């Protein structure tokens, strides 16, 4: 079985011809040393995973032929990760791990104490694609643009519950098995913590559940992974 996996933004079906862009052709030919006749795995986030054969390849592009489906489409639970960006490498880590662990959408937010005032949305989306390619997933979560938390909460649908990881609740990690299933969002704050006004607003929202993540205060990137693991084990598709 082919070991190379590639995300292709193109419909996939038996016999379907799939064009490669220059970056994909360079990766396959120059990095992975693949050529016509070699087989790889491809997915598009909609049609599952497919075995495909390289028909032609050159510096400026190439083409594949989809042969057969090797895995069905597996979409994640309806879980969003909402987080305040931190240092570049650690923000990259959060996006990669969220994609690996089954977040359906990733939303960076600007809080009162967020250190980063801008993000490269295209770069973070590329990290989500790479994570899905490497972990065997067939779904790539959308990475949204950076928006103020207050604006996001202004238009929040109360039908989507929020799991608020609050460092002020350091102590025994909460068990989530008694919470209702359905649409959720995990909220991770900035390195500087939450402002008093943010705490008041979140505490006043009926759809918000505060949780602690154990006896130690975790870094933001660690808190994201811990929260995703707790939610997936109790309410998601790890059950």
From TrEMBL:
Belongs to the RNA methyltransferase RsmE family. It is found in: Cytoplasm. This is Ribosomal RNA small subunit methyltransferase E. One of its GO terms (biological process) is methylation. InterPro entries: Alpha/beta_knot_MTases, PUA-like_sf, RsmE, RsmE_MTase_dom, RsmE_PUA-like, tRNA_m1G_MTases_N. It is an enzyme of class 2 (transferase). Keywords: Cytoplasm, Methyltransferase, rRNA processing, S-adenosyl-L-methionine, Transferase. It catalyses: uridine(1498) in 16S rRNA + S-adenosyl-L-methionine = N(3)-methyluridine(1498) in 16S rRNA + S-adenosyl-L-homocysteine + H(+). Its EC number is 2.1.1.193. Residues 20-60 form the Ribosomal RNA small subunit methyltransferase E PUA-like domain. Residues 77-232 form the Ribosomal RNA small subunit methyltransferase E methyltransferase domain.
């Amino acid at each position: 079985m082919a070991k190379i996996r590639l995300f292709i933004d193109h419909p996939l079906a038996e016999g379907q011809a799939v064009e490669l862009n220059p970056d994909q052709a360079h990766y396959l030919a120059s990095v992975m040393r693949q050529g016509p006749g070699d087989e790889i795995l491809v997915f598009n986030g909609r049609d599952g995973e497919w075995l495909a054969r390289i028909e032609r390849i050159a510096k400026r592009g190439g083409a594949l032929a989809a042969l057969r489906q090797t895995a069905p489409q597996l979409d994640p639970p309806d879980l969003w990760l909402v987080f305040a960006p931190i240092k570049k490498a650690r923000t990259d880590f959060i996006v990669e791990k969220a994609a690996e662990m089954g977040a359906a959408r990733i939303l960076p937010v600007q809080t009162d104490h967020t250190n980063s005032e801008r993000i490269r949305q295209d770069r973070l989306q590329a990290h989500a694609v790479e994570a899905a390619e490497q972990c065997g997933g067939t779904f790539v979560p959308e990475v949204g643009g950076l928006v103020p938390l207050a604006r996001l909460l202004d238009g929040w649908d109360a039908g989507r519950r929020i799991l608020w990881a609050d460092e002020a609740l350091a102590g025994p990690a909460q068990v989530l098995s008694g919470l209702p299933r359905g649409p959720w969002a995990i909220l991770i704050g900035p390195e500087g913590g939450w402002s008093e006004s943010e705490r008041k607003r979140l505490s006043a929202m009926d759809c918000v559940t505060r949780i602690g993540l154990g006896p130690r205060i975790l870094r933001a990137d660690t808190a994201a992974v811990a929260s995703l693991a707790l939610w997936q084990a109790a309410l998601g598709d790890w059950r």
